[in-house]
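@channel anyone free to eyeball this complex?
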Amino acid sequence: MRQEPFVVPGKLVVPYRYFVGRLASKALIALRDDKKVMGVRCPTCNLTYMPPRSTCGRCFSKLEELVEVGDKGTVLTYTVVYHKEPVHPMEPPFVYGLIKLDGADTALPHFIGEVEPEKVSIGMKVQAVFKDKREGNILDIKYFKPQ
Amino acid sequence: MAERVAIVGVGQTYHRSRRPDVNQVELMNEAVRAALDDAQLTLRDIDAVVMGNMELFEGNYLVDMWASDGIGSYLKPGMKITTGGTTGATVSCAAFNHAASGLFDVVLAVAFEKQDEGDTTAGLNSVSDPLWRRWIATGAMGAFARVGRDYIRRTGCKEEHAAMLRVKADKGACRNPYAHLKLNLTIEDVMNSRMLMWPMRLLHMCPTSVGAAALVVASEKRAKQITKKPVWVKDWVTVHEESATTWSMVRPGETSLEKASRLIYQRNGITKPAEEIDVAEIYEPSIWGELAWYEQYHFCEPGEGWRWAEKGVTDMEGEFPVNPSGGVVATNPIGATAMIRIVEAALQVRGDAGEHQVSRPVRTAFTTAWGGSNWTVATLLTKSL
Amino acid sequence: MTEKPSEEFLVMPIPLELPFQWAAGPYLGRFFRELRDNARLLANKCPQCGRLLFPPRQVCAQCHVKVGEDWVELSDKGVVEDFTVVVEPMSDPSTGERRTLPYPTATIRLEEGVSLIHYLEETDSAKIREGLKVQAVFKPREKRKGEMRDILYFRIVEGP
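replying in thread with the prediction:
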């Protein structure tokens, strides 16, 4: 006799907490306290990474030189989210972008706001909008808006 | 196997309860740099990188996506491996396989755990199958309380014997600069520590440590160029058991511990392990595991382990030293733990273990790892080919 | 503004909560259905070595052969083979909640020789011994969902 498959609903719930480390702590404290957006420079490769990391993947140098990369940048690419999902951070439609800050050589994923989604374009110049109550994480930048 | 392989560099972090100063990648980076320094190599000499951890302790399921900068795998081949308690040994074996295959000359292996970032017992309970056993799982404590009860019932061992081995472990840890718990314990301290689940006391159980370990492995030709003291990886094996629901680990009969060690001995002509092997670094998340498993590894006769504890056979100065590093009960950064067994055994073979170098001259070392109650990894390291 | 301590290390709490749908498959599925509908425990028998597989499954891992439909209904009675009392707080990964303490768990060997781990009704560890005869107490039909917790606990029915 054929029966319906027996399926058991369940979930996995575990609390985690992540230490960001010495270097990234310094960078995020500067963001929290002074609204300064920091990257880290590799002197060997002459590249500035944002988000900062403590080893250069290209040359394996230890990276310690935090530099301000500024709150202005360029949209390298973007997408518009139209569908609704419980995991989404806000109501659609909203825009995810990859933003290369002026002082950095790498792109930072973040939101693009204060603009009609249809009007966002690659190459658009944008500027960080900071939260008033900042906690020391990358969401202390609320989103990037057109300059 | 095609190529003979050797360990040419070892590294580990100082193991602690908490490391808020580093993130996961930075922790691994410390061990990688230590191993490269020990091998006197740079990342340019590395042909492939293998890494691993127990991902559900960090809730970060593809940490290799994040880690390539810190472990040096950027634009290099390699893979990530997770096999529970054996992770560090399986990562090491994967590095041995990479080098033995002839495809890669020099391979870096790195393993870590950052237990200050998750809830280890919740994570460990979640490895139990969700349909049958997860609801009642009690992590490693429950499993080893059972091992202890079974051993006491079967052999007439007393709680003092577990305490003796725990004090032995602590003596090793106090001489090991990298060890986590260094407590200057007495038998009474162990006997009076808090009861978790009879007969398991707090000091019978491993700590939750944060740490990383790394190995540099090379093919025979490169190994001889790289170092005057290569540690030859003579053999390695993994053996699985039936699913954990059968609780075969506390039953007499064939276990993965017994089978893995027997295979290694048979394949390498070892008939009297405790005489022919000079030092063992075994995986004992609880001191009850060490006590009950000497016989599983064929070190001693069934039921003789507690008598060995009484006689101090496995002390650092004993006839057959076991875990001179202090073992897992002193230091347990889970994903790295099984690799630390191999790192420590390699140091013993090289004669570079410093304060915790055993008295007996070391030509041959044996290591084990154990995970999930289902499988054992064993390795055999030697001074000469 | 005030000087922050030079060594402030940031930490980000990020709880994980993921939903799943676990398929029991035909063998465990039948087992859970029987448990839910009829409060009966089932095992299946390996055609080669003849041992009972409990929980029932498709393959005998020792013989490497497919196990067929040779079903055996198990008794709800057994003996306490081994027990412990959990006094250490730990999270249940199914809920994220801490389990209520203390609680005894026991390995119970059913009359047919297979074992399972479950709760005991008796919470006084002084009254629990190996060899005690116990019997499963099932939840009422309307509360049973087809899971091991459909057995409430095992009740001591007789001393050794």
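from a first look: Chain A has one domain: 22-146.
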